[in-house]
Fold each of these.
Amino acid sequence: MNYDVAIIGAGMAGASFAYEIASAVSDQYSIIMLEAEDQPGYHSTGRSAAFWTESYGGPQIQPLTTASFDFLNDPPKEFSPTGFLAKRGAVNIMRDGEDHLLRGFLTEFAESGVTMTPWERDRITAIVPNLKAGWDKAVYEPDCCDIDVAALHMAYLRAAKRRGVTLSCKARVETIEHVDGAWTITAGGHVIRAKKIINAAGAWAGEIGRMASVTPIEIQPMRRTMVQLRTNPPSTPEMPLVVALDGSFYFKPEAGGSFWLSPHDETPVTPGDAAPEEWDVAVAIERFHSVVDIEVEAVSRKWAGLRSFAPDRLPVYGFDPQQADFFWFAGQGGFGIQTAPAAAKLAKSLFLDMEREACARSLDAGLYAPARFAG
Ligand SMILES: Cc1cc2nc3c(=O)[nH]c(=O)nc-3n(C[C@H](O)[C@H](O)[C@H](O)COP(=O)(O)OP(=O)(O)OC[C@H]3O[C@@H](n4cnc5c(N)ncnc54)[C@H](O)[C@@H]3O)c2cc1C
């Protein structure tokens, strides 16, 4: 099987990139997406907390998140007639005595244009009832939204397929060799030849880089735990995302009056099928109890997923500095959904050496270039 481009991984990264390239040049390029699992979206993409919030990931991620808003909110009609976002609002909250965190947070985003309003207790308790004493200040981000992640991912896959991209599942890439100017890849019992590789393998991106003998970029997977709680009182749909400014938890209301809660854990692990640890579930509930007076009746669901980071915690988009036929699209950390549209458009312009679309024009590609790891 011969292709111009082989994309490794069909999560949000691979799917969004496949769509963008195929939209630009489907008549000139044959593209295959190789996915190890039975179905795409089994790993990080299917396990996210599903929010879009501009401050999440820090000021060097925010431009990617902001630039993705228009696509997520009002995508091309073939994607969705209604868009993928639903207004939520985020309360970035602090304990008494943590004013330095609040000041630092506001300073970090002072030039960003992100709407942020300092709130006192009475404003907070109007939308976060049962708030315990000692949590009296917050920064409110009204623009935070929920993302319909599954619909977005499926829409990218469908749109890519319509443009001729082949998706091959149960095709775990096992070997990669560069011979006579082309890649030979073995995956799922097949041998595939491709002129270029795009590494969108999420937690396995470092492993794929090593397999291809390109610049060794360490992409470290970190386990993050999520629990779904049944509580008394239950959540209400108008509650916001509540994020601790000290990075110790977040929670938000979910369908049926439940909460989704994370202890914001980051445990370095080897790539694999992440599962939650009881300890992290207990820590999550303890932290929830420290901020709201809400009884936890049951953990109705728990899961874990991998957020994968380069050493500087910025994503890696671009051609390998030593191997011009290998493109990195990795290190999407905890922001790979909310940044997907702009990231894929930026990466397309780098991959095809074409002019950037308006939303990606002001992004600083140098920040995310793999060349920063050369030497
Ligand atoms: C608990 C949690 C909460 C999160 N919350 C949010 C959030 O609210 N908002 C947000 O924007 N982001 C969030 N994220 C981050 C987001 O989920 C990720 O950044 C994003 O899903 C990464 O997409 P990906 O395609 O790179 O990875 P993945 O979805 O993991 O896809 C990579 C794919 O590559 C495949 N693969 C790997 N190795 C091979 C191989 N050798 N051969 C073939 N295929 C291979 C895998 O099977 C996998 O399907 C969260 C993550 C977690 C874990």
Note: The chain has two domains: 2-49+149-218+311-373, 90-142+221-309.
Amino acid sequence: MAYLNGDYLPLEECKVSVLDRGFIFGDAIYELIPVYNSKPFYLEAHLKRLVRSLDQIQISNPHSNDAWKHIISNLIEQSGLTRLSVYLQVTRGVAKRDHAYPANTSPTVFGMTNEWPAVNPDMYKKGLAVVTAEDMRWGRCDIKVTSLLANVMSKQQAVESNTDEVILIRDGYVLEGSATNVFIVKDGQVMSAPKNNLILPGVTRDVVVEILNENNIPLLEQAPTQAQLTDADEVWITSSTKECAPVIIVDGKPVGNGKLGELWGKVFNLYQQRKK
Ligand SMILES: Cc1ncc(COP(=O)(O)O)c(C=O)c1O
């Protein structure tokens, strides 16, 4: 079952108007919450980001946190799944097409679940290959908006070059992937772009930062240069879907010694413990 504006109904029966601003302008935000053993992982952090996204684009939050939790737990229960993702989307609602925010329009709220694909074991055994590309996104990458065309086009470059992800470079600095955050390691020092308007504040990024801090692993929250990426001993990409995944090839060249990183192994294991 999916959720649309107060009703639970089969996904195929969810219909929204063509005048919905989510459809017309991509005027909408979303959230994706991983669920393991029927329990949402880092739910509070996802809800906090959802509320922040709404705030930033001035859509009034249609639900209290408790009401959001209620919708999420109903969706989980009705999915009959134990390992799934919950996708939530809020648009500014339906209105005559005009760029300015409409007055008196209620937001459209949509939710659906999907079975969480079993992680491809090769990802953690062999590692991933990525390519770099110029970041062509807008200046508010910190808001989780559905208008993802630049990310979609960037990801297609990864697909067409037979790699797993694109790492986006702006003015020579490594910011994040098309749908992941990026960490590099050099001589035991971890580096990752800081949380500002140029990256999405990934919940998985925060979990990895928490793990690093708890284990006294030095972290510099500063965007690495492209040269530092090329010269790194290890590169990791993080997201709710990929968790913390090792990258062994960047632009066709091996990362470090071309094997899975030692520090990555440690962080990966600590991440798995957190999931339990
Ligand atoms: C651009 C971008 N960066 C990073 C992430 C990772 O975020 P999270 O760890 O919350 O899944 C995503 C996830 O969709 C993303 O789209």
Note: Residues 151, 176, 179-181, 200, 202-205, 238-240 surround pyridoxal-5'-phosphate (CB under 6 Å).
